[in-house]
């Protein structure tokens, strides 16, 4: 029995909105060419730049390119009229973009690191049972390529056929744990945000013996400009037009970087860091859009106690970690919903946790414990998340614990 079965993530398909199979390839082809036109041009290949001095240079390069390529696929779906949406048994959505992005990322990781294990969010069961849906995903996957042939070669090129694609999707079924090299993938984090035109992230991290060593986030709807102010509201109708699309990365002990997302060769990265504020009253919160993912009421009480007057900015996905890491936001709280018993998944946090810490932030749970990625696919040792610049984290955590009555 697979990991997904045991953790009850299997799909009970309720809704299927399917693109007309005949029109899909031309739509995707046209959108692929649009995405190539609107994004900035290439500056430098990573093998000539910052990844050379890294202790994980190949892992970083492959993760960056794989996230970039998968992000291009998600952008094609984002622009399509229908997104082939299914509802999973936990009532959360999955789209052809989630499946396609996962297939492309696993294919690239397995080509370069065949003996590494992978813990990924999705599984192929529903595609196996629905030929039309499978064809839609396959049409996307086979059409999506980076502009740069040498980057494509690095990723191992295309997947050969639709059956291999299903097999590849299911190679993300490792049980995880605290030993060896384990990648974790969230092909689209914030699928609800993706569907409503808000923020979402393509997320990849490498965990070695339980410790996150490499993290990459592709955020097609975030501004390229690290100092751009956070956009308010719930992040609806964000666009991935010119000036949007950012790629964040970090290697343990080597700091974190941001660069334009791009479509081919990796562009020149910039170092990012959290805001240098020393008092929480100057801070701005990033919080989840969905009140059943993180308690908005408790967040508001904590903000009041910290004398925070700036309104919270709600956005989906690990774009919240990226925003704190580059100083656009200051505090990300993910507070357990009262009466709920949800346990966080490693793919929702691994990359963002490392990128925030490597930017000068501190990330703990509500008890002040570091996030523990050695326990399998779930963060069973943690409750909630408190991420903030290291200068204010202790003050924020103290108030979180007061408001939530944490012993
Ligand atoms: N009940 C509950 N509580 C907490 N978290 C949950 C819950 N249900 C789902 N999820 C996970 O939330 C992921 C999306 O997180 P976000 O921060 O984007 O949430 S929000 O939609 O903005 O509120 C989402 O990730 P994706 O499925 O990749 O979108 C889920 O893994
Ligand atoms: Mg999901
Ligand atoms: Mg997620
Ligand atoms: Mg997801």
Specify the number of helices: 13
Strand content: 15-25%
Give the biggest sheet.
Answer: 7 strands, mixed
* Integer count of domains: 2
Cross-sheet strand order for the largest sheet: 3-4-5-6-7-8-9
* Unique bound compounds: 3'-phosphate-adenosine-5'-phosphate sulfate, magnesium ion
Distance between the termini: 38 Å
CATH superfamily of the largest domain: Fructose-1,6-Bisphosphatase, subunit A, domain 1
Number of distinct beta strands: 14
Description of the molecule:
33% of the residues lie in helices and 17% in strands. With 407 residues, the protein is of the alpha+beta class. The protein has two domains: 3-269, 2-Layer Sandwich (Fructose-1,6-Bisphosphatase, Chain A, domain 1), CATH 3.30.540.10; 280-403, 3-Layer(aba) Sandwich (D-Maltodextrin-Binding Protein, domain 2). The strands form three sheets. Strands 3-4-5-6-7-8-9 form a seven-stranded mixed beta sheet, with helices on both faces. Strands 11-10-12-14-13 form a five-stranded mixed beta sheet, with helices on both faces. The protein starts with a helix and ends with a helix. One magnesium ion binds at residues 92, 94, 121, 191.
Task: Record the SSE blueprint.
Blueprint: H1 3-6, H2 24-38, H3 57-79, E1 86-87, E2 93-94, H4 96-112, E3 117-120, H5 125-128, H6 131-143, H7 149-154, H8 162-169, E4 181-189, H9 191-196, E5 201-208, E6 211-223, E7 244-251, E8 256-260, E9 270-271, E10 285-287, H10 296-305, E11 313-314, H11 319-325, E12 331-334, H12 350-358, E13 361-364, E14 385-389, H13 390-403
Parallel strand pairs: 3-4, 10-11, 10-12
Antiparallel strand pairs: 1-2, 4-5, 5-6, 6-7, 7-8, 8-9, 12-14, 13-14
Helix pairs in contact: 2-3, 2-6, 3-4, 4-6, 4-8, 10-13, 11-12
One magnesium ion binds at residues 186, 189, 348.
């Amino acid at each position: 029995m697979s990991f997904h079965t045991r953790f009850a993530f299997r799909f009970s398909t309720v809704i299927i909105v399917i693109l007309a199979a005949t029109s899909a390839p031309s739509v995707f082809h046209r959108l692929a060419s649009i995405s190539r036109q609107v994004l900035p041009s290439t500056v430098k290949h990573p093998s000539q730049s910052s990844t050379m001095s890294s202790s994980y240079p190949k892992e970083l390069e492959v993760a960056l390119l794989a996230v970039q390529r998968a992000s291009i696929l998600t952008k094609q779906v984002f622009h399509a009229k229908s997104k082939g949406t299914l509802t999973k048994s936990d009532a959360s959505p999955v789209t052809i973009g989630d499946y396609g992005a996962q297939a492309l990322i696993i294919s690239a990781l397995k080509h370069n690191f065949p003996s590494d294990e992978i813990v990924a969010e999705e599984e192929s069961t529903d595609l196996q049972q629905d030929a039309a849906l499978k064809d839609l995903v396959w049409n996307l996957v086979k059409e999506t390529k980076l502009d740069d042939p040498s980057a494509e070669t690095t990723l191992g090129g295309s997947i050969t056929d639709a059956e291999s694609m299903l097999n590849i999707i299911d190679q993300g079924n490792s049980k995880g744990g605290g030993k060896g090299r384990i990648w974790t993938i969230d092909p689209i984090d914030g699928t609800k945000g993706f569907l409503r035109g808000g923020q979402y992230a393509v997320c990849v991290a490498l965990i070695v013996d339980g410790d996150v060593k490499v993290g990459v986030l592709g955020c097609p709807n975030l501004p390229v400009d690290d100092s751009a102010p956070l956009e308010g509201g719930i992040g609806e109708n964000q666009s991935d037009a010119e000036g949007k699309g950012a790629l964040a990365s970090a290697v343990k002990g080597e700091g974190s970087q941001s660069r334009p997302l791009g479509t081919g060769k990796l562009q020149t990265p910039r170092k990012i860091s959290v805001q240098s504020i020393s008092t929480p009253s100057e801070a701005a919160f990033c919080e989840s859009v969905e009140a059943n993912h993180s308690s908005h009421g408790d967040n508001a009480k904590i903000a009041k106690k910290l004398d925070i007057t700036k309104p919270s900015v709600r956005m989906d996905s690990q774009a919240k970690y990226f925003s704190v890491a580059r100083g656009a936001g200051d505090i990300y709280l993910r507070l357990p919903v009262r009466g709920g018993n949800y346990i966080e998944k490693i793919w929702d946090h691994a990359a963002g946790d490392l990128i925030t810490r490597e930017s000068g932030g501190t990330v703990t749970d509500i008890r002040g414990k570091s996030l523990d990625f050695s326990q399998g696919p779930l963060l069973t040792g943690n409750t909630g998340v408190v991420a903030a610049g290291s200068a204010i984290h202790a003050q924020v955590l103290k108030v979180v614990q007061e408001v939530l009555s944490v012993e």
